[in-house]
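WARN retry 2 of 3 for item q-0093 after timeout on previous attempt; input resubmitted unchanged.
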Amino acid sequence: MYSPAETQFGLAVPSELWTLPVAEKQALASRIHNSGYNHVFMADHVSFRNGSGTDGFVEVAGLSQLHDQLGVMISIYLLPLRHPLPVARSLVTMAKLAPGRMTFGVGVGGEDRHEIEVCGVDPRTRGKRTNESLEIIRRLLAGEVVDYQGEHFDIEQAKIRPQPEHAIPFIIGGRSDAALRRTAKYGDGWIGVWCSERRYAEAVDLIQTEAEACGRGDTRWLHGYQPWVGVDNNPTVAKQAVRTQMEAFYKVPFEKFERYTPAGTPADVAQQLAGYSVAGSRLFNLKICCEHPAEEVHYAGEVQRELMKLIA
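OK item q-0093 returned
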């Protein structure tokens, strides 16, 4: 198991990053790395709400070339919308572009049912499709020649070469018990969102119990938590910043998320997150919201330093 002192930090791609010239993108990536962050992460969507989205693999490929030590993570990749063979190929390609720096976050989606349907997938099947895909991809990345006959995929003599030299961690997202069982069977960790510290600890315990039942009880778990946070030296400004950005993205009232959305000064935010470390989180993926986008990396570094004071 990881100790609190080994906690990893991920920062959502800063709002202004892709608007900058190449040299300034590289400088910003260096600032993120120097602020105590292990990786940058971004979401994956095909056609979310009003048609918005970013292809996860395309973006992490670009991000990976901005800094040779900063890791990259898709969090969360909508795996049920894809066939497992091209996904395995993308993972092996990322292993070549960013050796030892790629983390694969996997989820089933569902916040926008139409996004699933418009890709030709029955939303009711997304959990089973994800499980089948994870089994196939895991076997392919282990170097196997895969024969597989499932409910959703039928594959004969499939192989992906070369096998990655460095293992790619699979972090499973989702709040349901099904997602926790998926983690126990196929994942290297679970990443929670919008849950209490008590529920987080219960989830970690359930994963361990399920993992022991399927012979994976000795897994060195990398469990994480991924909140949106509002940060400013003025707590009122911090809360308004995260409210505005979350409502713009999710198209639902902020009150739906407020209970689980830290906001305030960097010290306030760290205090609100520290309990998740006690509950078992060893990875914090933070989406920093502040009044001025240019200050996101500054406040990210402040939150990281304050949180490490509390948990290390």
